[in-house]
Write the structure tokens for this entry.
Amino acid sequence: MKKAIRPSSLCVHEAHDPRSTQPHVLPIYPTASYVFESIDQGIDIFAGRQKGHVYSRYGNPTVEAIADKLARLEVHGSEIPAQGILLSSGMAAFTTLVMALLNSGDKVLSQANIYGGTTELLGAFAKLGIETVWTDLTDARAVEAALQKHSEIRLVLVESPANPAMQCADIAMLARLARHYKAYSAVDNTFATPLLQQPLLLGADFSLYSTTKYLNGHGNAIAGAIIGKDAELMQKKIWKTMCLNGTNASPWEAWLTANGIKTLPLRMKQHCENAMAVAHFLEKHPQVSRVNYPGLLTHPQHDIAKKQMSSFGGMLSFELHGGLEAGIKWMNALRFIPLVPTLGELETMALHPASMSHRNIPPEIRKQNGITDGLIRLSVGIEAVEDILEDIEQALEKI
Ligand SMILES: *Cc1c(COP(=O)(O)O)cnc(C)c1O
């Protein structure tokens, strides 16, 4: 029998785990560190001779289970090996990737019409001596010219479909050009998810996610992911940078993300169907001047989207003939659709990029990239499509 200890010690000591069978659902491990059975085992784990957990900034079972699931999802249907790292947010994924791969003096090649936070972050890296060259990544000639002119480019970062104007860039073309000019290629695949688009299979080196959006889908956790196929690079550089920068995901957020992913296929199917119906409705409406949805034949990169995506996702944006003023009236007249500054959740949500998500992007850059003041972004949810369409229509009647 164990020696009886005093109540003040009993309270402090870790409780005995009475589990005798495996739980069916992945448990949350809210622990900062892990116990070693002996000092020899501790040394072996620290030295990498034996697998094991040490400290949750380096690794946590709940977090790793989801990172592994995402990596398998990323390359489904192929023999390509993939490794995943789950991070504290989508932004943490970008920061970690850039800090891991680039040095002062290196450059990034990207496009200005992406997630507003990414544009701002890349701008902020300039103070560390990492500058970004902006170009139109849908234009192969412009991309090659930029890579030739700036031999310091080490990373080509693309978002496709891009937030909020929905441009689609040819991922295979970008990956090929990046490799030719000795740069890495990374794709922000947040809008598509690995179910609709598989960047690693198209030749890219990395897929990046804000899992906060579609992968979780329920809007209750912030997390991000980096998926890559070079195991050594993932382990030695990216995982290491994550540990040192402390950009690791929390087990709670990982667990909520784990719950969300289970229904991803069902949700994406409904998002795609509903968004296509909304896009068709808006395209035919006399008050609407433009609809940006990759699934429409009128989308300038519809052919590219069709080539690299299995379906076109739940995101679209549009403009009214009445411009900004009409857009504001329309958004204020919505009854069913809330105004929420996020995307990829179950509910349909509207947002005004120029005043919200992209307000810190200089107006001239917004204009050059189709982020006009009158542009409205819709994250089309999985509700009954009739309810979504009826709300859109009744609000249009109020303009
Ligand atoms: C939300 C989002 C991000 C940032 O992710 P967080 O999880 O909010 O840090 C990056 N890229 C895209 C396309 C996004 O939608």
User: Anything to note?
Assistant: The mean pLDDT is 95. The pocket of pyridoxal-5'-phosphate is lined by residues 89-91, 115, 117-118, 159, 163, 188, 190-191, 210, 212-213, 222, 224, 343 (CB under 6 Å). The two ends are 79 Å apart (CA to CA). The CA atoms of residues 1 and 16 lie 14 Å apart.
